[in-house]
Design brief:
This protein has 8 helices and 6 strands. The strands form 2 sheets. A 3-stranded antiparallel beta sheet has the order 2-1-6. Strands 3-4-5 form a 3-stranded antiparallel beta sheet. A hairpin with a 4-residue loop joins strand 3 and strand 4. Helix 1 packs antiparallel against helix 6, helix 3 runs parallel beside helix 6 and helix 5 packs antiparallel against helix 6. It starts with a helix and ends in a 5-residue tail after the last helix.
């Protein structure tokens, strides 16, 4: 088996592990958030309820409602800051794994030294903030933050107007927060997949620039979940093209899974599980026999040491 095939398999395993780890951390963040909001809600019930009911009129006195909502908004904002840190850290790690392991595979398969350099922070930031669906990741996270703040405010106000009990209000808040947590999980999976595919693609593009001409082949999961409507990823399965050419799924065009652009590109990218496989078309660089049999760990130490 070529190192390109080996690296692709390992990258997918590392990607799955990174996603699972990130999702667990995010789930803990949201569980903590829910407990904190429940605690604040219990405090105002304890202080201002009458016969188990907390009314809007009671909370409207002395700016109590505004103060309570401000506290809740602060908790939501802190949670989003934490989640953003988790997501960005995971994407950086995933992109680098894809880039470096593909670089190792290309050099050791082609026996060519291609002067790969360490990935810079600017490159990672540009990849993360690439506005694939019209908004940057920061903008999408901010949009979700604004939406959940509005939703929670509406639920709290509604509960007060209706004279709901603590348990009823707490249940509604839990449901709203769980919906927001699921959105965060979907973002992690979609963006992690894009980061992995981007890292591998950029490595192949760099190789092509330096004389090892690469081809990319679209691979779907070949199950019933693969897109097959206007955005048709089944028809792309097995399509092999030069690394700088665009794939066309019928709705959007792009360089790789997770990178399809267009007015309706979200439906082409969200939850996409397709991957690219790479192969060497031709080699125009001199051989470097010393790379033969070099492991990734050896390659990383020797080939990147001067650029880190």
């Amino acid at each position: 088996m070529s190192n390109l095939n080996k690296s692709a398999e390992l990258i997918e395993k590392l990607l799955d592990a990174q996603i699972d780890g990130s999702e667990k951390v995010i789930a803990k963040r949201y569980a903590k958030l829910l407990n904190e909001i429940r605690l604040e809600l219990s405090k105002v019930f304890e202080q201002y309820e009458k016969d188990g009911v907390l009314t809007y009129s009671e909370m409207a006195k002395y700016d109590r409602l505004h103060k309570f909502l401000s506290t809740v908004n602060h908790l939501l904002s802190v949670n989003y800051k934490d989640v953003k840190t988790v997501v960005y850290g995971a994407l950086e790690s995933i992109y680098k794994e894809g880039y470096y392991r593909t670089a190792w595979a290309i050099e050791t398969d082609s026996l060519s030294k291609l002067a790969y350099a360490a990935v810079t922070a600017d490159v990672v930031t540009a990849m993360i903030e690439n506005p694939i669906s019209g908004l940057t990741l920061s903008q999408r996270l901010e949009k979700n933050r604004t939406n959940i703040i509005y939703t929670i405010q509406q639920e709290i106000t509604r509960g007060l107007v209706e004279g709901n009990t603590y348990s009823t209000m707490a249940k509604r808040l839990k449901e709203s927060i769980e919906v927001d947590a699921s959105k965060a999980m979907r973002i992690v999976r979609t963006e992690a997949h894009r980061a992995s595919q981007s890292g591998q693609l950029e490595s192949a593009v760099e190789a092509t620039k330096k004389g090892v001409v690469m081809l990319k082949e679209w691979g779907s999961m070949e199950d019933e979940r693969v897109r097959h409507g206007k955005s048709n990823h089944r028809k792309l399965d097995g399509e092999k093209i030069p690394v700088n050419d665009l794939f066309d799924d019928g709705l959007s065009k792009g360089l790789a899974p997770g990178q399809l652009m267009g007015a309706k590109s979200a439906s082409s990218n969200i939850n996409c599980r397709c991957v690219l496989f790479y192969s060497i078309d031709k080699i125009t660089k001199p051989d470097a026999k010393e790379l033969e049999g070099m492991t990734f760990e050896q390659w990383e130490k020797e080939r990147l040491k001067s650029s880190k």
